[in-house]
């Protein structure tokens, strides 16, 4: 997997733009770039000239650009112009195999895998190949190519996207973005919300620092009474359910700390980093198997230390 594909996996959402002018494409790409998206794909399968795409968009910092095209000849031109990857129909795999690490093969149905080459031979596709496919073809591709990476197209909503991104082998879901001038900002923000929704952020707990050690029990009991939750004393903290953690000694943060749960800690951290936040990598906590489950931000927010927590 290339470095750009690794970033695509960390984001999970691949905006796909079809534009008829360079100005349209640049406006859409710039808006997505400002929101932290690391990768976009430009659809060149329509009638617009290929040349409208690259000159300004490729100059945007921190943005990898791929191209969806129709033929291997277009693919070569796009890669030579600076495209990070190309998406093209599986049948074009017959023509060249030297740059397959930069190719996403588009497969609409499992039957396409049986396509024959010019000499009557089946295409020899690497097990580590990358495929773009609709949901109904994903299972067949996973069975035929268990080491392959998949980009799922045509997902319906945030929950479906989240479920696919939790599926082994799925790198991302591709989502169409409007390039019309009056819709660019609105649609870019829609995709940004979708990105956040796939991370399943939610409040895990609030840790409250004490004025004195005996404050922990008082604080936890008060919240337990207020919220109808169980009071649970502990060695370092007392709890009201799982939401309120009353510290017995001052911990991180001027006032305490806030834990934010996420369905994917690695992707959640990437989202925060793309938004300009940094993490204290020494704050890592592991589960019994040695996997990271928690990292704190370097800076407090509103007097609270903030950490992400793997659900």
Question: Could you explain the architecture of this structure?
Answer:
The chain has about 300 residues and is α/β, with parallel strands linked by helices. The chain folds into 2 domains: about 5-200, TIM Barrel, CATH 3.20.20.70; about 200-310, 2,3-Dihydroxybiphenyl 1,2-Dioxygenase, domain 1. It is about 30% helix and about 30% strand. The chain contains 9 helices and 16 strands. The strands form 2 sheets. Strands 1-2-3-4-5-6-7-8 form an 8-stranded parallel β-barrel, surrounded by 6 helices. A hairpin with a 4-residue loop joins strand 10 and strand 11 (about 235-240). Helix 6 (about 160-165) packs across helix 7 (about 185-200). It is elongated, with a radius of gyration of 24 Å. The protein starts with a helix and ends with a strand.
Tally of DSSP helical segments: 9
CATH architecture of the largest domain: Alpha-Beta Barrel
How do the helices and strands follow one another from N- to C-terminus? HEHEHEHEEEHEHEHEHEEEEHEEE
Which structural class best describes the helix and strand composition?
alpha/beta
Can you identify the CATH class of the largest domain? Alpha Beta
Could you estimate the helical fraction of the residues in percent? Answer: 25-40%
In the sheet with the most strands, the strands line up as 1-2-3-4-5-6-7-8
Shape: elongated
Distance between the termini: 27 Å
Strand count: 16
Stretches with pLDDT under 50, minimum 5 residues: 116-120
